[in-house]
Amino acid sequence: HALDGVDLTGEKGEFVAIVGTSGSGKSTLLHMLGGLDRPTEGKVFVDGKDIFALDGEYRRILGYLPQEFGFYPEFSVHDYLMYIASIKGMRISIARKRVTELLRQVGLAKMQNRKMKKLSGGMKRRAGIAQAMLNNPKILILDEPTAGLDPNERIRFRNLISELSQDRLVLLSTHIVSDIEYIANQVLLMKDGKISHSGTQEEIIQSVPVKVWSCVVANNEVEMWQKQFKVSNMKTLSDGIELRILSEKSPHYNAKEETMTLEDIFLYYFGEK
Fold first, then answer.
1. Percent of the chain residues topping a pLDDT of 90
2. How many CB atoms lie within 10 A of CB 8?
3. Phi, psi (5° rounding) for residue 143?
């Protein structure tokens, strides 16, 4: 099964992050929530109504940004958004006003006459979020929105998503934990098509039966430590290598307990020993 026994609920004002490795079922889940794929079993409801029965009514309250979205490369950014607005059935006068507003909001106002094929990866993602927001949706679905972006563009995009997430339900899938560490109020961990853990970030962190430790070891001992423990990070120092280790007990006489983060959680549940 691509998905097996998945059950989740989201409400207005919530930012739900779906975290997992490639092939865990994240995109399949979002395709179903977006109405692109119909589940062989189970239902998807909005306000108690089946989304596949609502059809066009559901699309009017939905904004969707797939991992790979299509566009006409010769269209300018402005014309691309106006074209998408026409597909969504928006009146021209309303669409023009909305496109102008969104171009400013996503930082593409000065690029509105540039052809889509000339945009950088980050600019294309921003144009993508603008098209998803054209109808001011109540539900916003984002599938790996920062994949392939450089660190600066990821930060810019993350801040933009945080700004746009107010007063709507946002569902975002990612394998990049830093994308959601400061903005998600609900986290779902997916593995093998199942939701293995769910809750607030604090609840997810408390679910782990180990602690995080840092200690300095000799350069030639690193491989030995990696065989014995899950090591989430390594840092080269003048006197050796500082390791960040997941362990129930202190792994070393000079080990110091650290604060656990979602990155540590990701390693614990999805990493290899």
1. 72
2. 13
3. -105, 110
